[in-house]
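RECORD TYPE: protein structure
NAME: Isoleucyl-tRNA synthetase
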Amino acid sequence: ISGRGDWCISRQRSWGVPIPVFYDRETGNEVLLNQDTLTHIQSIIAEQGCDAWWKLDEVDLLPESYKAEAHKWKKGTDTMDVWFDSGSSWAGVAKGRDELAYPADVYLEGSDQHRGWFQSSLLTSVAANGQAPYKAVLTHGFVLDEKGFKMSKSLGNVISPMMMIEGGNNKKQQPAYGIDPLRLWVASVDYSGDVCIGDNIMKQTFESYRKLRNTARYLIGNLADYVPDGQEGSNAVPYDDLPSLDKWMLGRLSSTLREVNESYDEYQFYRAMQALLRFTSADLSNFYLDVAKDRLYTSAFDDARRRSCQTVLHACLEGLTKAIAPILPHMAEDIWQNIPYDKSTQSVFEGGMNSKLTEFEEYAGEQWDTILELRDDINKVLEIARTDKLVGASLDASVHIYAPEEVKKHLIGFDSDENILHPPVKTNGVDDLRTVLMISQVHLVDSPDDVSE
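PREDICTED:
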């Protein structure tokens, strides 16, 4: 804007929004444009539209106080620059409608509008009211094909959104992904630059969508007999009574939800989706749910281990459903309608995120980071052993662990009983190395030699 010249807002076009000015018919030098003429013309156009300027004579366009001298004036034929039209839309839309607000929360357009609509809107609003018409401006790049080329009919590389949603005639070659996976792709790319889309990209996006949906199905399937806190007959476990693993998981949930909310506030949707996908895949599905199967499937209905796990699953289900709702509204509503316990609202879109879900503190993070690293190391060794046909399932294995003291201190409290006991003696049956590593026996040894022996 600082380097911009004066803006000539008049255009000599055969059609457009007229500039409502009258000129002296003889000299063309004297101009008639004041509040009375503007108010009268405004009322005419509000009733008949802009074409009234071209259809009516001067005597009909002038207010009563000027009709007697209508023969003296000639209406102008210049039209407004179209950028003035769109640039003043804040007056007719944001400011002119009761359900909207001025200034608008955000103006959204492509990066080419930095010198277009964003500027013209800013200039007209500042000139008229001394303030910008928007609180924030959001710009995005352009959608390119899978190879990064601009879409063109001549190149035959135009990708229709409806094709992605509904599929083509051959559903095997052009499957119908539906609207939510397409929305997921939009939310998962960094729109600040140009973005690419194509069949392979949509297949990868759909895989992420499928993982989210399957995770939600698993959570729902294990909450059939669960009654949340605050409801009659609740079997939820209080936070202070939860095992360390469950407290850690709730801390990871809250941390993720806070990151998602912050990303939404900053319009960084791809960051929100990255956080959600990372949480559901790495923390929830690959670790917590994998470890939790034993206590969910083999424990008695009211076993404390099972109820504590359900308490965490309930929090994860509601938190994730609320978090994905702005991006995947159909999936979120589908999940909400299939939740088996009584809900606080009929729709996922009634009411916002439960603030309690974002308030769990990170718990024993360093300890669980150590255990997760150990789990990864053991899984790598087990994979080698499987390749060499030394073991089959991980439960066939006995693991001997030697670790430096600064690492070992995180494992001592998780040391398992020598043999499987019920109830366990050394641990609560959840915060147990044998359980979290999914190994039949775990031995903490004092030297590297003890491992080799």
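COMMENT: Residues 86-144 form one domain.
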